[in-house]
Amino acid sequence: MKIGEAIINELIKEKDVISASIVGSYSENKDIKKIGDIDVVVICKKLTKKVFLKILKRAKKKKFKVSTLINSTFGPMKINSKNSLPIHLMIYDLESHKKHVFKSPFTCFDWERSQIYRGKSLKDIFSAKQLHLNDFYEARRNSKEYMKDIKKNRISIRQYNFRDNKVILKKKFIKINPRNRGEFVYHIINFLVINLYKYLNQKNIKVKGKQFDNLFLKITKNNHKILKNFKILRERKKNKDLVYNPSIVSLALNFIKNFDQYLENIKKEYLELNLDRQFPILVQR
């Protein structure tokens, strides 16, 4: 049995767990040797410290030919390891999952495409339904938040703290290391393009190939150099390079500037369209 399926088969045995899903690259049938980690989303009825620890114990229970590491934080941080496969275990209960959908619609909408789950699907529990223009300005992992983090050489993550029977999700900033630098730049560019494509087409489909390249070039005003550099970065990521030069950050900064301008143009068209609907007599052509 495959590693991801074996893990969620074990997790769903926990009586408090109502859903265990594999999301991200692994759910797209990518070669396990080429992915950075396995992303696992768990939804339980009510999260407590006891439930959290029981789920962690089950995730560690399975043994495989390759050694595994558990990362129970939230965010695009990769654990450095040449010889181990990281398991990115993200645990929510029903209420915190609903809040996460509202605050992080890009992430949750992407997760809903997964067909590898046990128990209830994430879409059936609580769906993001669709992306909206405001999400690109207000939701977590928007371009401005990415720009702020990368300029400060940091990655924002969230981590559970348990105090006096209370569950606190604390935001932390991790200094970017040589590997995370490249992984984070790739993550930023890749998902900004993917999320924009979903919004423009009003469908939860992942853009790739020529369609990805075409949208990338529209965003960057036909800048083939930026696209070429992104493709080189993508290949390095597939090869699991562990060290990236600080200069790679400029690729993200250049792309984000182009992306924000492209988004502003979409926003202007959207406002003009609404204005036309509200005052048709004033905009006769």
**Low-confidence stretches at least 5 residues in length (pLDDT < 50)?**
275-285
Structural class by sheet pairing and helices: alpha/beta
Order of strands in the sheet with most strands: 3-4-2-1-5
**What shape does the CA trace take?**
globular
**Roughly what is the average pLDDT, rounded to an integer?**
90
Distance between the termini: 64 Å
Order of helices and strands: HEEHEEHHEHHHEEHHHH
Proportion of β residues?
15-25%
Q: How much helicity do the residues have? A: 40-55%
Estimated radius of gyration: 20 Å
How would a crystallographer describe the biggest sheet?
A: 5 strands, mixed
| Number of strand elements | 7
Provide a count of the helices: 11
Characterization of the model:
With 285 residues, the chain is an alpha/beta fold. 48% of the residues lie in helices and 18% in strands. It has helices at residues 3-11, 49-61, 94-103, 105-111, 122-125, 135-138, 143-151, 178-201, 209-219, 224-238, 249-278; strands at residues 17-23, 38-44, 67-71, 84-93, 117-119, 154-163, 166-175. The radius of gyration is 20 Å and the shape is globular. The N and C termini lie far apart (64 Å). The model is unreliable at 275-285 (pLDDT under 50).
Set out the fold topology.
Elements: H1 3-11, E1 17-23, E2 38-44, H2 49-61, E3 67-71, E4 84-93, H3 94-103, H4 105-111, E5 117-119, H5 122-125, H6 135-138, H7 143-151, E6 154-163, E7 166-175, H8 178-201, H9 209-219, H10 224-238, H11 249-278
Helix pairs in contact: 1-2, 3-4, 7-11, 8-10, 8-11
